[in-house]
Structure to design on (123 residues):
């Protein structure tokens, strides 16, 4: 589901916040038209399947691990990526390779990409 983008003016200039399919959005942009990408893409391989979200909502089992409690605050559950099969890890690698190809096409020379990741992506 793609939501309309929002444009905002601020101290750092104009920016556009987009919630939607990042690959389709980048396909629709002209080459060299984006100065920066800041993203935390969903991996979506297993953790948000109907089976796994039912386990998450039930608070038991599946790929979701109980988060640590820090200073009296309970954090949200986090997925365990160590449970991914070789095929699922290959799909994750293929997604990020495709993401990178499209991001390089739309970023201006000298543009910036800030991407939230986890150690699984560096293997």
């Amino acid at each position: 589901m793609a939501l309309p983008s929002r444009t905002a003016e601020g101290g750092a200039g104009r920016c556009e916040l987009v919630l939607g399919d990042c690959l389709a959005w980048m396909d629709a942009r002209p080459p060299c038209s984006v100065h920066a990408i800041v993203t935390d893409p969903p991996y979506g391989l297993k953790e948000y399947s109907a089976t796994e979200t039912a386990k998450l909502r039930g608070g038991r089992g599946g790929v979701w691990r109980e988060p640590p409690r820090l200073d009296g605050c309970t954090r949200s559950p986090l997925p365990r990526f160590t449970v991914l099969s070789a095929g699922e890890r290959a799909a994750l690698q293929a997604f990020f390779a495709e993401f990178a190809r499209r991001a390089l096409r739309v970023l201006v020379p000298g543009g910036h990409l800030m991407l939230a990741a986890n150690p699984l992506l560096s293997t």
